Amino acid sequence: MNIAIIFAGGTGQRFSNGNLPKQFVKIFDKPIIIHTLEIFEQHDEIDKIYLSILPEYLDYMEELVKTFNLKKVQKIIKGGSTAQNSIYNALKAAEKDNPPNSIALIHDGVRPILDTEVITNNIQDVKKYGNSITCTPCYETILVSDNGINPQKIPYRKNTYAAQAPQCFYLNEIISAHEEIQKTNPNYVDMIDACTIFNTLGKTTHMTKGNFGNIKVTTPRDLYILKALLEFRKEEINALQ
């Protein structure tokens, strides 16, 4: 089984849009979270979707799933206190219904510009290498600074990459990694993503080439970029028809 684990349990502290979390902001009359879910809904190799969401938005999310006819969404789970807690909750829900060697594709609910071939390549690479981290090369110079004032290290740009999503693993292995981290770091301090969890445990990860434009909506400015990207994608699809 190939399972999408979509987490959208955040309140968007860096995103100001009244009281509405960013995942529910509408672009072209459709919430961002729906744009994201439809990518996996429409992909032939994705069998099921598990979604973690803010507890107070569970009913609203269920209505959205019905309204947009998302048949692959199996369960909507309460999100946790951190992104990693939310992901773990969804992984454990998937564990109850699926074989342990299922492939779990972990993806941000507010990252709705993902090419279908990136999903395909991730699934293939998990089967080949054991896991898969979607990445793109960095075209800006990266500075490493402990104090935010002076750079202590400047890695060669050709050796730097931006980790994105999906990040993909065998279901039993990523659950085991979470539970190993929880023994010493129950609040997931500095565990920014699944890649960090795996590498912290000394496990080797494999990079899979992602697509540019696969942005995560974090600030209001990102909405303008997202609108432009979605409009471009719509025009591209129309041109192919």
What do you see in this structure?
This protein has helices at 32-41, 58-67, 83-97, 116-129, 171-184, 194-200, 220-240, and strands spanning 2-8, 26-27, 30-31, 48-53, 73-78, 103-108, 131-137, 161-170, 207-209. The protein is α/β, with parallel strands linked by helices and 241 residues long. The protein has a single domain (2-136, 162-240), classed as Spore Coat Polysaccharide Biosynthesis Protein SpsA, Chain A (Alpha-Beta Complex), CATH 3.90.550.10. Helix 3 packs across helix 5. The longest helix has 21 residues, at 220-240. The chain is globular. It starts with a strand and ends with a helix.
Sheet with most strands: 7 strands, mixed
Q: Provide the CATH superfamily.
A: Spore Coat Polysaccharide Biosynthesis Protein SpsA, Chain A
- Tell me how many strands there are: 9
Overall mean confidence score, pLDDT: 91
Task: Kindly estimate the percentage of residues that lie in beta strands according to DSSP.
Answer: 15-25%
Topology:
Elements: E1 2-8, E2 26-27, E3 30-31, H1 32-41, E4 48-53, H2 58-67, E5 73-78, H3 83-97, E6 103-108, H4 116-129, E7 131-137, E8 161-170, H5 171-184, H6 194-200, E9 207-209, H7 220-240
Parallel strand pairs: 1-4, 1-6, 4-5, 7-9
Antiparallel strand pairs: 2-3, 6-8, 7-8
Summary keywords:
241 residues; alpha/beta; Spore Coat Polysaccharide Biosynthesis Protein SpsA, Chain A; 9 strands; 20% strand
